[in-house]
Amino acid sequence: MKNENIDVYLQPLLEKLEMLWAKVMTIDVTRPKGSWLFCLGTICMWSIHDFPTYGLVAKCQVKGYMACPLCGLDVEHGILHT
Prior knowledge:
Strand content: 5-15%
């Protein structure tokens, strides 16, 4: 598989996250009047994708030697995670 450029697909998300990481003024209508404004910041906690894309996004080795991110150097051949 060729080395794909996942950044092209993630660029709009990254731009939005960078804007929100710098914090933006937001309105919370559940607060009493006069204290509606607050500063909102955000992060991306999870992403869901297939295993090859996991290697691209997380910059992990997903094939060949040490291909299992959970095992690392502790790989025992023929034994799978359960």
